[in-house]
Amino acid sequence: MEYCSNWDKSKQRLSALWSGEIIDRCCIAVTAPLGDQSNYSKLPSNPQDKIRYWTDGELVHKRNISKFENTYFAGDAFPIMFPDLGAAGHAAFFKGSKYQLEDTVWFFPSIEEWQADSICFDRDSFMFQKTLELAKYFVDESKGRYFVSLPDTSGNLDVLAHLRGSENLMIDMMLNPDPVHEALRKVQDVWKETYDNVFRIVKDNNEGGSCVGWLHTWAPGFHGQMQSDISVMLSPKMFQDFVYPELLEQSNYMDYPLYHFDGHQQTRHLDMLLSIENLKMIQWTNVAGQPSPLHFIPQFKKIQAAGKGLLINIDARDIEPLMEQLSSKGLYLIVDANTKEEADYAVKEVERLTHE
């Protein structure tokens, strides 16, 4: 593994993390820029060049290698090549889907009304084929220098929100739920096929494990992200009816499932999430406009009391008050530092504060 130091030790820590064990300290991944990174990911203005920016393996690889070379990886941070084609990106794998590649992948409603063929998986679709192609290209180019992430194909109800439009979908869920349930079953099949294919491509390169690139995770087996970002607009009853079955099935399908908790509005669903026996970890995201993680200590304690791991993105200055109130077992902190010195300080703080 290039670009980071002492990966073998970090591998031991990250493996133990999933069992709620501590090797020598709490897990922490810290990255900091080395020099100017302002131009490495500049988005082109031409529409065709934007498509190539996201889907041309050589360009994406070159851009990320440049970032790795200009990033300081501290603690348990390590380089991950991420085939990033949009959140709930498997929406683009269906016939008739409408999307545009800009600063990310933007989707536009394509289902005007539910028909028998409204949801039809297209294995020959540009984006499905690119998902597999990018994963294979990155693995072929890696030669052990970095790991390759599974794609961001999570959140089946989020996929339907892309294809139907969130407002229309919410009305459907209340007034016409049957086609929504049928569509969710089809999307679930696509999720499985995509994850199976990509995991087979990347697992040997990833030392038998798998990663979620944007979350800085690695696990020694089949590991992926689950989510339902649209659930911030759902009641617990609707979450139970439309989301819970998907999460239960996916969590039993993977060895090391993680749930991406997108904003404190999802707290109303926390008890249901914690009831999923094979759910190993919850990743807490503080979305824009919400207070820091220090405001949610009771929720974090509840997650830990249920025996689930906890991944938190946090400012370096909040490490001490957070760790003083939480168990270090099963805790994984992600920190974006401004300097190498700040990154090293964050790791030393975690070493000092680790406890049972």
Concise account of the structure shown:
With 356 residues, the chain is α/β, with parallel strands linked by helices. Helices cover 41% and strands 16% of the residues.
Nearest-angstrom radius of gyration?
20 Å
Number of strands: 13
Distance between the termini: 30 Å
Relative strand content: 15-25%
Helix segment tally:
13
The CATH architecture comes to Alpha-Beta Barrel
Order of the strands making up the biggest sheet = 2-1-13-12-11-10-9
Task: Tell me roughly what share of residues is in helical segments.
Answer: 40-55%
Find the structural class using helix and strand composition: alpha/beta
H/E element sequence = HEHHEEEEHEHHHEEEHHEHEHEHEH
CATH domain class: Alpha Beta
Poorly predicted ranges: none
Main sheet characteristics? 7 strands, mixed
CATH topology: TIM Barrel
Total domains? 1
Mean pLDDT score: 96
Structural commentary:
This protein has a single domain, classed as Alpha-Beta Barrel (TIM Barrel). Helix content is about 40%, strand content about 15%. The protein is built from 13 helices and 13 strands. The strands form 4 sheets. A 7-stranded mixed sheet has the order 2-1-13-12-11-10-9. Helix 4 runs parallel beside helix 7. The longest helix is centred in the middle third of the chain and has 26 residues, at about 175-200.
